[in-house]
What does this fold into?
Amino acid sequence: MDKPWFDATTNTLLIEDYVPELDSFRKIISDEVITDVELTQQAERVIDLMRQLEAMLDPTAKAVATDLLCEMAVLQVLHARKVDSL
It folds into this structure.
């Protein structure tokens, strides 16, 4: 399934729109409690996917993907801090 990462017209990120569709997200939030075990399991899912992707990428693509992941992390932290300050 090919899902765009952003809207090409508005430059709006679309990744967050896909989160509610994920089984992992729905399962974790179903009881409205996020446990340490669930966080660990989610981290393991992310690492497994990162390993798969890393194995597919040539060094140039890996460098871009690394920059992307880091910049997305910055964006998430900034967004969370802005929300917390409201």
